[in-house]
Amino acid sequence: MLTQDQKGAAFAELHQRPGTFIIPNPWDAGTARLLSHLGFEALATSSAGYAFSLGKPDNEVGRAATLAHAAALAAATDLPVSIDLENGFGDAPEIVAVTIRLAAGTGAVGGSIEDATGRDDPIYERELAVERIHAAAEVVHNLPFPFMLTARAENYLVGKPDLKDTIERLQMYQEAGADVLYAPGLANKDDIAAVVSSVDRPVNVLMGLKGVEISLAELSAIGVKRISVGSGLARCAFGSFLRAAREMREHGTFTFAEEATPYRELNSLFASSAF
After folding, report:
1. What pTM value is reported for the model?
2. Residues linked to residue 206 through DSSP beta bridges, in sequence order
3. Among 79, 5, 70, 95, which Cα is nearest to 36's?
4. Residues 126, 151: contact at Cβ < 8 Å?
5. CA 184, CA 171: separation in Å to the nearest integer?
6. Which burial class, exposed, middle or buried, applies to 263 when counting CB atoms under 10 A from its CB (0-12, 13-18, 19+)?
7. For residue 275, pLDDT beyond 70
């Protein structure tokens, strides 16, 4: 197994080399190992994907369980893992700093902090939002290994599609010390290009959104560095599960088995040590 320092160096290099890479989002050790087998170069956790696997809604898992989940994924493969740390599990910059310090102890080599409050006032005021990223960055930049801090501007996900405010926030997070910038929910090439051209840090873009069809090649041409899919893979899996279950319950048939991955294939993959 690679050391955390080696994983951190590999993750940092992915953000420095030319081109765009996909960082898919597994929700357990098994899906992490499958994505590693398929040749992806890094992984990111999904707070929603993990919550759904526990039978809970997003943002109701808590810090301890989130970090334990991240540690399990980081130990499952040699790939670098970045953690979805939601809003840092608290409002105060001091709490965010503790969360980042604990995240660094899981074996992961990256983590994201969002500016969504999870309350009726959905986005933190700018000054506090910047202080939170600055507190996280201070911890990150004093770690003994590379750790990529991603700052997320959540306007679009909370129903506030304000491109100007989103860009200004990302610029402020950049100055506060973020290594990667991310505004999930951008749905067209013009908005994505506007964000990329307005900052000088690697930009992560969320794909796997219904009705949004922008390819890796198109995003690479815009200058996007990293593409994640959030809960997309988990929702795809749950969608297949629900279709199969509804077929049995409503029609009494079992044609879903025709599209199921063969038992022997999965068993052979998980028996392999080539992860």
Report:
1. 0.97
2. 228
3. 79
4. no
5. 15
6. exposed
7. no
